Amino acid sequence: MAAETELASQDEGGTRSRIRDAAVRRFGRDGFGAGLRAIGADAGVTAGLIIHHFGSKGGLRRACDEHVLELLRSAKEEAVTDGSTASMMARMAEVEEFAPVVRYLLRSFQGGGELAAAMAEHMIADAETYLAAGEAAGVIRPSRAPAARTRYLAYQNIGSMLVWFTLHPDDGDDARFAASLRAYVETIAFPAVELFTQGLFSDRSMLDDYLMYVPDPPPDDDSA
Question: Has keyword Lyase (predicted)?
Fold first, then answer.
């Protein structure tokens, strides 16, 4: 009986994950107006079973948000605590695997509203954690205002993706979206690595001058 219960629990978990993954793909491709029947068809289940596992379409959306954030958190933390060229090249080789996640994020931010704002704040909070881990690992320089730096980097990251995919619209074709994502990554990879590792200005005179007028950096404000 115990073994049967464990197998049933594993099957429940597998079905829930299959539904969630199908929803991430469907929401990313068609937007959050996509219906439960379409998601169920993708996952090979009924709309009623989706309600059984997630309670509502809103519950499914929250589960998708949590899953996408966890995938991003894990990938980013590995990137900033490793810092090796081999690790970076391995992630670039597998960039197409992240296409459903990136598509989902784009849909969320393009949709705007409270859910998009909440997603952005969760991403920023996660980024604070993994940037701090990078500092502790000696890979990332400390900041006078770590939370403000994190928010700036997050806005830059989100903004650059939004610009790219606005200029290269998603036509709903999975393969073309994945190819566009690879083109985006390959376009920004070198300048991003160069900028993050070498900096932009040849010296720190601009910072020193700025600090003469603003001796302390703006306080970190989580409500920004």
Answer: no
